[in-house]
Amino acid sequence: VILAVIVVIAALLVILFIVKQPEGPIPPAVNAPINVVRPTYQRANALEPGYLFLLPSQMEVKVGQEFTVNVMMDTNGYNISAASSFLEFDTNFLEGVEIDINDSVLTMTAPSKIEDGLITINRAKPGDRDWQDSDDGYTGRDGILASVKFKALQKGEAEISFDREKSKLILDDGYGTAMDVIHSGAKIIIE
Q: Which of 23, 73, 90, 162 is the most exposed place for a label (fewest CB within 10 A)?
């Protein structure tokens, strides 16, 4: 048995040394580095801020009355592919009733919710990684992100404001770059 193993090993060694190795370099298809050609995109650097604002910015309502506030966007001429709005309100004065996205200029959505004085709205629209064009995504001055219905609970003044850290306009640059945004909420006078 040992002799058979030695013979097999010797035969393998002879084959390895006798078989002629190819001369010259290995063909490029085998030893060439893999060059993946990737398109280059410019990270957006918007010079002017965008705006997230509420309309109307001030209104008078009666206790028990339901009213609607529109969450609006102004991209200042830049192309965006997504927007998020986090609205905060005092639950002693207001109740969030409903979020309506039917008139939104952005066509895709993540679940929106009303919870403990916070309204979350996230919307998007496919883009092409060109934040300076206007043929996709959204570019505009008075675009509706969503409409939110509230109910007035008691007399007083209530503010509906944006969480400035979370409420964003995302440029269509393929990197998820958030624009600088100026936020403007609403004042509700309840009689």
A: 23
